[in-house]
Design goal:
The chain is an alpha/beta fold and about 80 residues long. It is built from 2 helices and 3 strands; from the N terminus they run βαβαβ.
């Protein structure tokens, strides 16, 4: 069995407004830092023209503070 090269592997954390999301972001950041992988924070914006709520903004800022690249997808269909 062949293992994926570490430099090619990435860590993805999904952003939500849940209070527990900060813990998930911190856990992903710790894992990323110890493994040499890059971190990406993904937020799927399902609203129509509304700005992300305060909790989403806080969680995106937290992920960015850990060096995550931020990806926002605007779509009502999350499948």
């Amino acid at each position: 069995m062949q293992r994926e090269k570490t430099e090619d592997a990435k860590v993805l954390v999904c952003i939500s407004s849940s209070p527990s999301n900060q813990r998930v972001i911190r856990s992903a950041a710790r894992f990323m830092q110890g493994s040499g992988r890059s971190l990406t924070a993904l937020y799927i914006d399902r609203s129509a023209n509304a700005a992300p709520g305060e909790e989403i903004q806080k969680n995106l800022a937290l992920a960015q503070s850990y060096g995550a690249s931020i990806e926002i997808i605007n779509s009502r269909d999350i499948s």
